[in-house]
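Reviewer 2 asked us to include a model.

Predict the structure of this chain.
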Amino acid sequence: MIWTLLILVLAIALYVFGGLFINAGSKKTSTLGMVVHKGVNVIAIMLIAGCVCRLWTPVYLVNTNPAILQEMVQNMQAQQEEAKNQEVRKFVKSHMNEMIGDAPIAGNVDAKKTIFLWSDYSCPYCRRVHSELARVLAERDDVRVVLKNFSIHGALSDAPAKAVIAAKIQDNAKAAQLDKLLMDKEYFTQDDLKNQAKLPETIKTNVMKLAKEAGLDTKKLEADMEGEVVARELQNVRELAQRFEISGTPYLIIGEQAFPGAIPYSRIIEALK
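Predicted model (structure tokens):
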């Protein structure tokens, strides 16, 4: 802003006094002198106009018509979203099987339309989107949800994330049922949170109760939770999260579009089109 003001002052001075310097040594203005004088005036006017625009534009955008700023931000966000979706589209097309990996699948495992869901069982927004997805799956058999269990809340996340992945080793349908139970029911209480030292074991015990309700062999499940398959899938989840710049949950990839946050049923249906 300071530089703009300085240039404006110099441009005004050039316009007002430029002719004096050009004609200082001659009593009679020559043709060349007139041409130079006009050129100097044009340059000065251009500088003045540019500086005035530079000074007035922020005032206009902030005080006179701030809606333009909002529109500019929205357009920029739309461009960034489209650029990201292009990268997602390119990667999903060529790495579908790799992205599915050892992940449990809700819905028709052979469905033509795929939704990838990064979620955390202790995340309330994940529970909200889970109910929206459950509605979609109840109505359609051409959609499947690949569950990418993103363990980001420590003890509250680790055991349930590992358990659902390990459950697929026994039976994918039972893994999907365990996922449903963990999302629909509370697997820890406020009293559980008071004893942080015992929290991991408490959470695991509670998860095993739900696993038994889902019809799983809990002894095998506990062993598989610390096995190679679970470790590989959790690594896959983290690597894909880094690639897609996922910093929180829920996060959905529907078809070839990315959706951070808990989107509603209507938007899921629209994206599936």
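The chain has eleven helices and five strands. The radius of gyration is 32 Å. We have added this to the supplementary material.
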